[in-house]
Amino acid sequence: MKASLVLKMGQQLTMTPQLQQAIRLLQLSTLDLQQEIQEALDSNPMLEREEDGEDFDNPDPMAESLDQKIENTPSENSSPDSQYEEPVNTMESFEEGDWGERIPNELPVDTAWEDIYQTSASSLPSNDDEEWDFTSRTSSGESLQSHLLWQLNLAPMSDTDRLIATTLIDCINPQGYLDESLEEVLESFDPELGIELDEVEVVLRRIQQFEPAGIGARDLRECLLLQLRQLPADTAWLNEATRLVSDHLGILGSRDYSLLMRRMKLKEDELRQIVDLIQSLNPRPGSQIETSEPEYIVPDVIVRKDNNRWLVELNQDAMPRLRVNAQYASFVKRADSSADNTFMRNQLQEARWFIKSLLSRNETLMKVATQIVEHQRGFLEHGDEAMKPLVLHDIAEVVGMHESTISRVTTQKYMHTPRGIYELKYFFSSHVSTAEGGECSSTAIRAIIKKLVAAENPKKPLSDSKIAGLLEEQGIQVARRTVAKYRESLGIAPSSERKRLL
């Protein structure tokens, strides 16, 4: 092939660092944005936080007040007729006060600093204070294993039994059940220890007496029986509940109450009380131990109603105000090309772009939130059943932005409304056609299904086909499979599992 030069014209989109920064800030949540702002404040001296009540025109009020103090202090050559008074010797006044009489010049050798001076540690409540709970202020969540090990350390055991108990605790899953069989646990020990299967089973019985009740069970039946055994002996219907769990748990799971009444020779009212006692037990005892740290949500937008109008405003407490440090900015010289001046100029430019990106983020968030509120007024007035179908394209077309931008704005951004705090994505949902030719939001359909199930007869719960028929009577055309999908998303069990005794 012959080499040749070819000229071609084309367009290429190049993202500048400023644009990349604006996009990155746009998709950050409020907590992540606060961390990003703090990092920018720590790394860029040109940025500073504008505090409430601070004079915006005064770049450094502390410096000004310090200068005034220096100017007002008389010099050595000041005349006695000067309008300023003679400065007071603060050290002499301090020694002549009450504190001077209480603080000795020298401390005895056997005296500690805390015996004379009050420290921050001494201000903490003592361990004897009943209201002081150190773990509640320092712990970040407790695992089930650590909770069981803490109880194990309080139980008197031999070294061999403690080794067996530690191994068994490691085999308990987060739900509280023993994952491994006793034979498999026995095989994990060194044969030279001479541990037998009976010893493992005895230690397991000890662990099953720990809290929470029902821990260390190998199946559901054993878990429920362990909890029943820890109830007071005078508990009503305790013996009947123990017998039902031991012999007829499968029939109870299938909701065949007629067969249960025949097998146990009970009346319907008696069986109802026994079932209520069993349902008060926890089939997953390990879930009582909270292992995850709490997650806090800071709303970005606040919506409130004023004079029959819905007002949208940014959460100012979550949006720190930044500005350029005027004192440092005044040090930048235009004609100076030194390394220090170039560094300050670059920092000043980055600070201005960062503030501009934050303003752009807030403006975009306000535009999108305002349009969402305008579109979903029915939800704010009447609840989920009045939710209208909404997709990203609808908002993008109104505000004149791309759908990807709307997706970034609505991700991990929350709106505080009189009905609660919702993620902005909650207001977007697909639609289903109605008999009149209109559209109904999938969120509204879920709310209707939840309402129908809450009002159903517990003896004859509504099937998915029946729910679809009831929706069709309201003009909403939904297939049975769609009803099943919505029901599962709401965490509602099938009709066969919702059957209850009156």
UniProtKB/TrEMBL annotation:
Residues 49-58 have a biased composition (Acidic residues). It comes from the Bacteria. Residues 134-328 form the RNA polymerase sigma factor 54 core-binding domain. Keywords: DNA-binding, DNA-directed RNA polymerase, Nucleotidyltransferase, Sigma factor, Transcription, Transcription regulation, Transferase. The keyword Transferase applies. Sigma factors are initiation factors that promote the attachment of RNA polymerase to specific initiation sites and are then released. This is RNA polymerase sigma-54 factor. It comes from Pseudomonas saudiphocaensis. The gene is ntrA.
